[in-house]
Amino acid sequence: MAAPKKGRRQSGQGRPGRSLVLILIAMVALTGGMFLSGHTTPRLGIDLAGGTSITLGAKSEPGKPNAVNKTNMDTAVGIIERRVNGLGVSEAEVQTQGDRNIIVNIPKGTNQKQAREQVGTTAQLYFRPVMTVAAGAPTPDPSASPSESPKATDKDGKGDKGDAADKDGKDTASSPGPTESPKGRAVTDALKADPTPSPKGSDKPEGSDAPSPTPSADAATKELQEKFTALDCTKQSSRTKATEGIKPSEPMAACGKNSAGQWEKYVLGPAEVEGKDVKDAKAVLDPERGIWIVTMDFSKKGSKDFAATTGKLMKQSEPQNQFAIVLDGEVVSAPRVTSQLSSNAEISGSFTQESAKDLANMLSYGALPLTFHEDSVTTVTAALGGEQLRAGLIAGAIGLALVVIYLVAYYRGLAFIALLSLVASGILTYTIMTLLGPAIGFALNLPAVCGAIVAIGITADSFIVYFERIRDEIREGRTLRPAVERAWPRARRTILVSDFVSFLAAAVLYVVTVGKVQGFAFTLGLTTLLDVVVVFLFTKPLMTIMARKKFFASGHKWSGIDPSRLGAKPPLRRTRRTPGPAGSDPKEA
Predict the structure, then answer these.
(1) Fewer CB within 10 Å, N or C, the chain?
(2) Which pTM was predicted?
(3) What distance in Å separates the CA atoms of residue 543 and residue 322, rounded to the nearest whole number?
């Protein structure tokens, strides 16, 4: 008869080396990835690295007194946060303060000027047809008298001597130099025409002139012309005054910078497409032409409106074949239209990678439900945060030293296993935090440091639970190797329940809070998960291997599991009963 097979040994007892090799490979891979990525330290938040804090105040638009409400403020926070994150800013904080303010904290280490421009540009986004373009800052006309300003028209809407344009319809007053934009048509003609350009030869009887404007339209045209004439784009106050109170359905005068960084002023028609109709925009390097372009995807309504607008603009001559992308009353781009476009379009020009990404970011996240103005801009230094960080690290070091002293004094040899486990946990935590910086924009702030310090206690608690279960088994009279394996299932349940409660608390805290508290919750949740990984793949296999060593197996007095010091009971032995005579009472026997 074949002998019964021996029971299969538990995987944890039979092959602990596999688990140790697995976690060691993970640590080496994470450390190597950290050095290869060029990021060897975690990104720091604004309280540790310093940065800029911007306060934005919401203001009601004409005719919309109740626009500043919680729903619109929350929507604005989400859009501004996505816009800032689109710049690759690490740990930018965007949150409401009171009923009308939004606080934006941008940490150091990013392009502060670029980020501030993106955050401060908070008004709605519109696509408007270009009617006229001229130099942003008026310059003396060489053909005029010294007292004349180089205006294209006079106040009554007529050009000098009744004609401000030359025979080919181009404006004679244009910005000089090689960086000048296409010359605009005569201001008077553009303003008195239908604000939305229509295809040549359509809707007008042959030989007829443009319809004469009504008195109210003539007054509006005169007012806009005066704004355009007086507009000095080099002055912020002039740019703001020109765009105040303008509705999307009205033509406007606005300013913008060309590719050379020079100011230009525009007369723009009513808005044809709203920014909210842009679903997505991306900066892409065109491999064939070797230039940066911006691609746009429109919604169904936006596609229809954009197709109608570009279909009319493509038939016009410069500059009326351009459409202006107007954000916060400023022209951020005015590309020419060469064909009818619909759901997908691209904008090409003298873009750098940075300017293309800026424009794509504005197109993607530019449409806000409210108008904002900068109330204050404050530079935050890292001096106070640095002092608090040093104090926190000192407190953490003292706490860790006390934990080590306690482990060595109470668990003796077992403290060696606990310390190695803490080192493994520290390596995993540090490398993962460092890699999460460039990966998802995670940045270490003071609450996150506190979360990491709290995690030391959570990890040490798991070791203590396991060690105490082993000691309980030894007190029952079992030798070390069986005690290690029998203690593990009981300790494992306790550790999993404890870590689950900690992780659940961290998850709830992360969801219901904002700002820096989320850093504490994220770090606490991450280190709790790593505690499970370390205990299962490092501490338990290492304990199994150490149990085979003579120092621990023999119960050395410095091993921490000396049976005599633990008050172990002698092994339990069963005694056989001698059966008495047949029919006799066992009690009598």
Answers:
(1) N
(2) 0.54
(3) 74
* Residue 466: closest CA among 497, 482, 490: 490
Q: Is residue 80 a contact partner of residue 118, using CB atoms and an 8 Å limit?
A: no
Residue 331 token pair: 């022209």
Reading the chain (589 residues) residue by residue, the pLDDT tens digits are: 444 444 444 444 558 888 899 999 999 999 999 999 888 888 877 777 777 788 888 877 666 667 788 877 877 787 777 667 666 555 567 878 778 888 887 776 556 666 666 665 544 678 899 988 888 765 444 333 333 322 333 333 333 333 333 333 333 333 333 333 333 344 445 544 444 444 333 344 444 444 444 555 566 678 888 888 888 888 877 887 887 778 888 899 889 888 777 888 999 999 888 877 887 888 888 888 888 888 888 888 888 888 888 888 888 888 888 888 887 778 878 888 888 777 777 777 677 887 787 777 777 765 566 777 778 887 777 666 677 778 878 888 888 888 889 888 888 889 899 999 999 999 999 999 999 887 877 878 888 888 888 888 888 889 889 999 999 988 888 888 899 999 999 999 999 999 999 999 999 998 887 667 888 899 999 999 999 999 999 999 999 999 888 888 888 888 888 888 877 766 555 555 555 555 555 444 4
Residue 298's contacts (CB-CB under 8 Å, 6 or more residues apart) are 273, 277, 278, 279, 306, 342, 343, 344, 345
Q: Six-digit token pair at 491?
A: 């300790």
Conformational region of residue 88, where left means phi above 0, alpha means psi within -120 to 50, and beta covers everything else: left
What torsion, rounded to 10 degrees, do the Cα atoms 80, 82, 84, 86 define? -150
Give the C-alpha separation, 267 to 128, whole Å: 10
> Are 532 and 495 spatial neighbours (Cβ–Cβ below 8 Å)?
yes
Q: Among residues 140, 134, 137, 201, which one has the least CA distance to residue 165?
A: 134
Assign residue 97 a region (left: φ > 0; alpha: ψ between -120 and 50; beta: otherwise).
beta
Look up residue 499 and give its two tokens: 């870590």
Rounded to 10 degrees, the C-alpha dihedral 523/526/527/531 comes to 170
Is the Cα dihedral 8, 10, 13, 19 positive or negative? positive
What tokens were used for 3?
């002998």
Distances in whole angstroms, Cα of residue 177 to Cα of each of 130, 139, 235, 262, 324: 21, 12, 21, 11, 22
Q: How far apart are CA 507 and CA 516, in angstroms?
A: 14
Q: In angstroms, rounded to a whole number, what is the distance separating the alpha carbons of residues 28 and 5?
A: 40
Helix (H, G, I), strand (E, B) or coil at 296: strand
Q: Tokens 């280190």 map to which residue?
A: 527
- On the question of a cis peptide bond just before residue 251, with omega within 30 degrees of 0, the verdict is no
Residue 183 DSSP label: P
Helix axes 480-512, 516-534, angle to 10 degrees: 160
**Residue 396 CA: distances (Å) to CA of 407, 517, 523:** 16, 19, 15
Task: Tell me the C-alpha distance between 197 and 391, whole Å.
Answer: 66
DSSP 172: S
